[in-house]
Design a protein that fits this description.
single chain, about 150 residues, mainly beta, Deoxyuridine 5'-Triphosphate Nucleotidohydrolase, Chain A, 1 helix, 10 strands
């Protein structure tokens, strides 16, 4: 098992829920659990509480990602993926879930794994205003300019 590289203080706002944990030793994301049960109808989104608050150290960020199994099997995703948990935030971690399935409702039960939290180091940039930018081979090409997306 990999040794943790950072310690994160956690306040359990609901002691009956599991502490976030990694399913496998090499996983990047720790599972977050639903504090309440609900039904997401097709196309519906909801803000789901997780029952935890964190003290992420300065220089790090928590990124909330969808769970691949929920996305693939049921069309459940995180609307603002990845959701950002800044180091200064001390409130309850909440996840905005969206049911992208066009036909089936999806039931979330209390305690279900709904998302995963990845902790990463971050750099803060100093933005310097300039009159022009250095030229590159790509230039301003984007949004499918390399052939991956046909824009009309």
């Amino acid at each position: 098992m990999s040794e943790p590289t950072i310690s994160i203080a956690i306040k359990m706002l609901d002691s009956d829920l599991p502490v976030p944990s990694y399913a496998h030793p090499s996983d990047a994301g720790a599972d977050l659990h639903a504090r309440e049960g609900l039904v997401l109808e097709p196309g519906e989104r909801a803000l789901v509480r997780t029952g935890i608050a964190l003290a992420i150290p300065h220089g790090y960020v928590g990124l909330v990602h969808p769970r691949s199994g929920l996305a693939t099997k049921h069309g459940i995703t995180v609307v603002n993926a990845p959701g950002t948990v800044d180091a200064g935030y001390r409130g309850e971690i909440m996840v905005t879930l969206l049911n992208t399935d066009k036909r089936e409702a999806f039931t979330i039960n209390r305690g279900d794994r709904i998302a995963q939290l990845v902790i990463q180091k971050v750099e803060q940039a100093a933005f310097t205003q300039v009159d022009s930018l250095e030229e590159t081979a790509r230039g301003a090409g984007g949004f499918g300019s390399t052939g991956g997306f046909a824009a009309n």
